[in-house]
Amino acid sequence: MKISVLKERRPGETRVAATPETVKKLVALGHTVTIESGAGTVAGFPDPAFTDAGAAIASGAAAAAAGADIVFKVRRPEPAEIAALPEGAALIALMEPFAYAAEEVAALNARKIAGLSMEFTPRITRAQSMDALSSQSNLAGYRAVIEGAQIYGRAMPMMMTAAGTVAPAKVFVMGAGVAGLQAIATARRLGAVVTANDVRPAAKEQVASLGAKFIAVEDDEFKAAETSGGYAKEMSAEYQAKQAALTASHIAKQDIVITTALIPGRPAPVLITEEMVKSMKPGSVIIDMAVSQGGNCPLSTADEIVDVGGVKVAGFSNLPARLPADSSSLYAKNLLAFLPLITAEGGALNLDTDDEIVKAMLLTRGGSTVSERLK
Hints:
- By secondary structure, the protein is α/β, with parallel strands linked by helices.
- The protein has helices at 20-28, 47-52, 61-65, 79-82, 102-110, 132-152, 178-189, 202-209, 220-223, 237-251, 274-279, 324-338, 356-361; strands at residues 2-5, 32-36, 56-58, 70-75, 90-94, 114-117, 159-161, 164-166, 170-174, 193-197, 213-214, 256-259, 285-288, 304-308, 311-315, 362-365, 368-369.
- The chain is 32% helix and 18% strand.
- Helix 11 (274-279) links the parallel strand 12 and strand 13.
């Protein structure tokens, strides 16, 4: 197959969908790889590194994608990029399916693009190596703590000196999914006193295993608050009110708060109200990781730091892009792990498969929308 890797064009996107390491493996499998010139430069992978690995370099999206069986991208293409894709090609990317406008879906179908969304990778054991949401969330959780520590501007661990003792920072992580657990682990490594919450009962043991204290209203609704796929359910208004009361009393004492709560396909739930923000000490920091879906705090603004009475509310919409080399490397390996599922004997593209992973990820094909979730 011919595999093309296009340069990312969305503002602030520094990642690339292949690395010299994965290109070398793709070539060894018999595939032809073309990289759009400059696609990996910001991530630390210049064009010569790709050519040394066996890839060809082409200038511009149209030239790079010409004749491709499969196109790899990090983010979903904009309409102008879709126009450059070969008719009938397969496109694999973080497609942000719930953010798609009708005209974007129509553009994919007009060119009979087989669009596969990495976000829809099922959370099953066999698909763990392909789970791009997890690989990127891990790095996002780490980076959220680093950003929070930088904005906080004080020491994170306890320090005892002849001049006096510096108290450790208090970090509260709201949501203990992949990003939250990595945030907990990172804050603990930096010496902070860490607390965390989550609506999923299984998270309590995970939080404790990382040395943090679990904070939650543990009633009957809490005990049933997880889907069979391992995601958090949306909680009732009554539970949210009880949890908010507990959070309000706890959050006023914190130095850094990191919010991670997201529900696929829905606006992010509000976890921190304006009143809670104003109850925090001047110099405190909130990192809202859900800002791209409306935010867990109504005061957060995408890619800005808002000062609310001395409390800094930061909304970073693309934290993995702040670690482009590592996030690109992990994402490229996710794609490499997925590729055999759509490769027939002899190396040809094969989307005619009953594989549950492929079926879950397929959005459009042959001019039609095939994903029930996207419909």
